[in-house]
Design a protein that fits this description.
- The complex is a heterodimer of chains A (about 210) and B (about 220).
- Chain A has three helices and ten strands; from the N terminus they run ααββββββββββα.
- Chain A is mainly beta and about 210 residues long.
- Chain A has a single domain, classed as Porin.
- In chain A, strand 4 (about 95-105) and strand 5 form a beta hairpin.
- In chain B, about 10% of the residues lie in helices and about 60% in strands.
- In chain B, strand 3 and strand 4 (about 90-105) form a beta hairpin.
- The model of chain B is unreliable at about 20-30 (pLDDT under 50).
- The chains are: A mainly beta (about 210), B mainly beta (about 220).
- Chains A and B meet through helix 1, strand 2, strand 4, strand 5 and strand 7 of A and helix 1, strand 1, strand 2, strand 3 and strand 10 of B.
Chain lengths: ~210, ~220
């Protein structure tokens, strides 16, 4: 976990170094793999590791996102995440799937390195086990739907016109209640992720620029 | 613990890098014409609330979606659906669904094209509120009801671009009708919805991201 975070930090520092090689933003934009983020559709698949501070457990997730840029620097984005494993000893988390919808602000148009921040609202579908008096083995609670808010920040690195790498961090606030489980179960979590994705331009910007109306 | 601190440091470092490149000027122009009337936007929101005079109720967590349809340069409307959950004393939780309609009035002239950052508003509206109590261990033990409510609020849009805004708002809501409560009787948990003389009062705090998707007229 620590190694993964350190690797992400290293990636971030590398990104800063790359930025430092350009005196002017215009020079930097000349090397960008595409003319603008406007009209871009992005698909990304990532592996994430998370830490739940209230449960003191680590979890691993598969995450995906679909983003569309209706204008440059602004992305509307849907995310999903699915629990792969919760290896910490004593973890009672069995399922934790999240779906989110929200908006992202990307700080650079025509990017190579593309830092962003975003806010999303969504729902978690989760399940935990619980101890039932008279039963030897833990019982599975019912699936519960819980509201969730997610803050994200990170950076994309555009390898080519169609391919990018991503690294970032997330803070998720959510709480599971009920479902035969006597106590609440906080799903609040900090995650770090690394991913790979594709992007496609959906708008012909040259055609749009020459449009009469 | 070390990993937790590193995660926080990472979050801060990434945030700082991103903010350092915040553009000085808005380089995204509004796609709509001179009048803001007819603008339709869609948004998602996170919410929390404070219910007054109700000790059992803990701070809830909620999410929602909303449409905004603007009728005049200084009058907007917001149509929203929000879902919230909260602890309600020991072993009980409360669900709330708000189906609401609000009028947003922009008290200050100017910035009608949302080109500048801040646009404060006053909101007034009504809603139908669904409330339900459910026992944690026995989900079949539950009670629910629908109540009408009205709300007065203050808020502001923070325009990241003319089409894209982050909005903060606080609403004071008065809810009329049956009140939800819990009682322990002979060791049994009773969940009740009873008529009450007292109007239920709450403060609602919202943070939403909205994007203008169309200019209808």
């Amino acid at each position: 976990m620590v190694n993964r975070i350190l690797f992400t930090l290293a990636l971030l520092l590398l990104g800063q170094t790359t930025f430092a090689q350009y005196d002017q933003l215009e020079d930097y934009e000349k090397d960008a793999p595409f003319s603008s983020t406007e009209g871009l559709l992005k698909l990304n698949l990532a592996f994430a590791s998370g830490f739940m501070p209230n449960q003191i457990i680590y979890n691993h997730y598969l995450q995906g996102s679909l983003a569309y840029f209706p204008e440059k620097k602004v992305a509307l984005r849907a995310d999903f995440s699915m629990l792969l494993s919760s290896p910490s000893q004593g973890s009672i988390l069995k399922n934790n799937t999240g779906i989110y919808l929200g908006g992202f602000w990307h700080f650079v148009d025509k990017p190579i390195w593309d830092p962003y921040v975003g806010l999303q609202a969504g729902l978690h579908i989760s399940q935990t086990t619980y101890e039932k008096p008279g039963f030897i083995y833990p019982q599975h609670g019912e699936f519960q739907v819980s509201p969730a808010v997610q803050f994200q920040t990170g950076i994309n690195f555009y390898i080519s016109k169609y391919l990018h790498l991503s690294a970032g961090a997330q803070a998720i606030v959510a709480e599971q209640r009920g479902g035969k489980v006597p106590d609440d179960y906080s799903l609040t979590e900090f995650r770090a992720h690394l991913g790979l994705g594709f992007q496609f331009g959906l708008i012909d910007l040259e055609k749009k620029k020459n449009r009469v109306f | 613990m070390r990993s937790f601190i590193l995660s926080l440091a990472l979050l801060l470092a990434l945030g700082q890098t991103a903010w350092a490149q915040w553009p000085d000027e808005r380089d995204s122009k509004a796609s709509f014409d001179n009048s803001a009337a007819g603008l339709l936007s869609f948004g998602v929101a996170g919410q929390t609330a404070s219910l007054l005079h109700q000790e059992d109720y803990q701070a809830p967590m909620g999410v929602g979606a909303n449409f905004r349809l603007q009728f005049h340069n200084r009058i907007n409307t917001e149509w929203a659906l929000h879902y919230m959950q909260a602890d309600f004393g020991e072993n009980v939780f409360r669900k709330d669904i708000f189906v609401s309609a609000n009028v947003l009035f922009y008290p200050f002239p100017g910035n009608e094209d949302f080109e500048e950052s801040w646009r404060p508003f006053i909101s007034l509206g009504g809603s139908m509120n669904y409330g339900a109590l459910e026992a944690n261990t026995t989900p079949s033990n539950q009670v629910d009801r629908w109540n009408p409510a009205m709300a007065l609020g203050l808020g502001t849009h923070f325009n990241l671009s003319p089409n894209f805004d982050l909005s903060f708002s606080t609403q004071y809501m008065l809810e009329f009708g049956d009140k939800l409560s819990r009682q322990i009787s002979n060791g049994r948990l009773l969940l009740l919805s009873l008529p009450s003389d007292r109007v239920e009062q709450r403060f609602l705090f919202s943070l939403s991201l909205n994007y203008k998707i169309a200019d209808l007229w």
